[in-house]
Structures are given as structure tokens and as C-alpha cells.
Amino acid sequence: MTMLSARRSVAVTSALLTGALVLSACSDNGEDQNAEDDAEALSETGEALVPEAEGDAEYPMTIDTAHGPAEIEERPERVAVLGWNPNHDAAAALGVTPVYAASRSFDYGWMDEEWLDSIETLEEREDTDVNLEGVAASDPDLIFLPNTAEMFEEEDIERLSEIAPVLEDAEVVPGDQVDWRDAPRLLGEALDLEEAAETAISEAESAMEATAEEHPEFEGRTITLATDYGEEYGIEYYTAAGGTAEEITTLLGFEPNPLAEQFSEDAVVSEENQSELDADALIMFYAEDSIRENREDSELFNQIPAVEDDRYTSVVATEDERAEGGAVWVLRRGASVESLPWMLEALADWVDDADLES
């Protein structure tokens, strides 16, 4: 992937202040002076960075998190977002512009470049690398990082909480088993935008329902999604029982694969157990073509019924624009209200290539 610059700055507050000065220059009456004062206050508090409140929440509020209660005294207006893309996608779906955002990548096919450009400080960082100074410099009044309790050191969380309330999920869930609806709901609760969160969720669910209706051949069939990381790391089973990918495929009409049960605790597929990849459709993801060639040279792999019967599709990231743009990641840990609708066409095409109806 082409990496975005490590940091971008957008002078949102400067633009608002400029607008305020124009107002004052246009008129000297009291009404225009009040407009100038309002514009200046708007830029200083950051209210323009979050949509208008729905009016259902009461502050102060307390939200239980994996790190203890988050005490939110007033409605947050300057939000910092850390962690994987679903956290940032939740903010985008709710119309929230973070003052600070950090993640491993923002170069995903579904992300809005205009929205990314509007973020005051945008940083690409390793998953566990927390820039405390950068977060503090953005002056947030809420730090949103659900689904990251397994990533960050407790010391980092404690130091972040000294900057602003830290909003995390109430329970620690493995990254590939997180409910993609949780992040928008959690942010919606904190920002008095719960209706907006439910609307975003409904739109994503409707997109999956539409895809299922367009592909009745999915109904009642089984599917396996897995990635071959090469000799060092081997195969990882994506559609494990109880995982995010399994839920996505069942929403599209597929039946849970009975073979998926054994991978719910450990997703690694050993070489001798390659036969457990079998399903009505087998989709294998590869980082590069050499890995695909090695796998397809394996005698045990070729003995899998789905492979023998040409119900197998190979997807090589370097040769598939949608895979390179994050569609495979969505099926692992990147599922969100924004990424799921974008990914559906790619998945449907890959299943079609597996000749499910043969």
C-alpha cells in the first residue's frame, strides 16, 4: 500500500477565526459583533468537529470500560481516536472529525480522503505505539480507543487518562471476534449520537441483505476464508466459529461451516490438517504469488475436495486492487460500518470465481 504522510495538519480553527474576522469587518452593529463572538467560541471549543447533539444523553455520564469507569463531565467536542480502522470508521460514520487520529494505516479503499484531510493531526504508527505527547498536544476531551485493551500497556492507558477520559469497551474481546457494531454504539453513547450510530449500522446491514438477495446461490452453502502467510507463519483460518468473518458470511446467507469449530480458539491450520479447509467454497488469500505457487504445489492441499472440484479461488494481494485496498483485512479485524459495504462486491466476486453453483 502507498502510505500517507505520517502527519497532516488542517487549520480548522484558523478558518473559523478568519470567518469571524470577516463578519466583524462587514458590520459594526451589535448583532454582527455577537456573530463574531459566537464564531470565535465555536472554533475554540471545537463544537464544529462533532454534529449537533440529539438531546437524549445527560452529562455528566459514566461509561464502564475494561480499564475502569470513564467519567465524562460534559459533551465531548474534541475527540482523539486510536487503534484499528473500525474506531476511525465509527467516527467518520457519525460525522465526527477527530482532532487526532493514529493507526497502522489510513490507506484503505473505503476511507474518505476529504475526511482524512480534515483531521488536525493524522499519524501512521505501529499498533502498540502510543504517542502520548501527540495526543496531549491535540487537546482532546475524549480519547476513543475501543478494541485496543489487548494492544496497549496499562501504563499508557493510565497516562492517556490523565489527558482526557479514555473510552474503551467494557470487556476485552479478541480482535477477530469483535462485534463491528460496538464501536459506533459506544461513540454514539458518549457523544449523544445514538440514533446516528443505529442509522449507520442499519445501512451496513441493509447492504449485506441486498448482497444476499443478489446472490441466492449463497443460501445454505458453506465457505472457508483463510490466509496463507508463507512458510514461517503458515495458514490462518478466518471464518472460525464465533468470529467476525463467520458472522459476515452468515449474514450473506452462508451456513456456519462445521469444520470451523476447531479454529475458534486457535486459528492456525497445520500442514497435516489442510483438509479441514474444505467447504462448498474455499477462498485463499496470499500476500504474493510465490506463496500461492508453493501452496498449490502441496499434495495435501490439492487433495482438499474444494480444490479438486474447482470450488477454490486464490486471491493474491499484489494482483487484486480490492485485496490490496483492505478487503481481506475487513474479513479479519477491519469490519466496520464503513468498510463492510465497500468489501461486499469483492467477496461476492471471489465466491463467483469459486464456481459455487457447479
Write up this protein.
The protein is of the alpha/beta class. It has 3 domains: 12-48, no CATH class; 61-200, Rossmann fold (3-Layer(aba) Sandwich), CATH 3.40.50.1980; 215-353, Rossmann fold (3-Layer(aba) Sandwich). It contains 15 helices and 12 strands. It has helices spanning 12-26, 30-45, 85-93, 113-117, 132-137, 154-161, 182-191, 194-214, 244-251, 289-296, 299-302, 305-308, 321-324, 327-334, 339-353; strands at residues 61-65, 68-72, 79-81, 100-103, 121-124, 142-144, 166-167, 223-228, 235-237, 268-269, 281-286, 312-316. The strands form 3 sheets. It has a 5-stranded parallel β-sheet. A 5-stranded mixed β-sheet has the order 10-9-8-11-12, with helices on both faces. A two-stranded antiparallel ribbon has the order 1-2. α8 (194-214) runs parallel beside α15 and α14 (327-334) crosses α15 (339-353). It starts with 11 loop residues before the first helix and ends in a 5-residue tail after the last helix. Residues 1-47 have low confidence and may be disordered.
List the helices and strands and how they pair.
Blueprint: H1 12-26, H2 30-45, E1 61-65, E2 68-72, E3 79-81, H3 85-93, E4 100-103, H4 113-117, E5 121-124, H5 132-137, E6 142-144, H6 154-161, E7 166-167, H7 182-191, H8 194-214, E8 223-228, E9 235-237, H9 244-251, E10 268-269, E11 281-286, H10 289-296, H11 299-302, H12 305-308, E12 312-316, H13 321-324, H14 327-334, H15 339-353
Parallel strand pairs: 3-4, 3-6, 4-5, 6-7, 8-11, 11-12
Antiparallel strand pairs: 1-2, 8-9, 9-10
Helix pairs in contact: 1-2, 3-7, 7-8, 8-15, 14-15
